[in-house]
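Handoff note, outgoing to incoming analyst
You'll be picking up this chain. Sequence as last confirmed:
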Amino acid sequence: MIKRKSKIISFIALVALLSVLLFGCTFTSVDDHYSVQLEGDFEVSFLISCEKVLTTEGAFEGLPNTLKPLIPKDGYFIPKVDVLCVEGDSVTDLLRKICANKNISLTITGGNYIASIGGLSEKMYANNLGGWMYKVNGVFPNKSASMYTLVEGDIVEWLYTCEPGDLGELEW
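Most recent structure output, in case you need it:
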């Protein structure tokens, strides 16, 4: 019985090794998967959430079937992580760097309008609502993300909204 278990374990290890060699599979921890490696001068916190798509009644169901598999099960493209910024980086600069680093699709139109993150675009619903908004330190700034310069300790949140008011009151 022990020899049989040993052979089964050896077989499983061999299959895993062959998978890595043949198919380029790699195994990473959750922390490594979400970590963002950037160089910079100071640290800020950052997240990208589409949690409202999962918690707003009918929102997930209203998405095109081709998009549903792209929505993270926990609602976060990037959960809160600490990242390094270069002096002068804007919120948009940091978003571009993180999306490129983590291979998350990003569509910016008109030079600075965030139209899509991770394939989740504005106006995805029949009511023609929905889109990306950002907060810094818990407040929705009254300026374009490309005009907001980050400083040490900022907390940046990119949030998908499904309907007016679902992210709280706008305080400008």
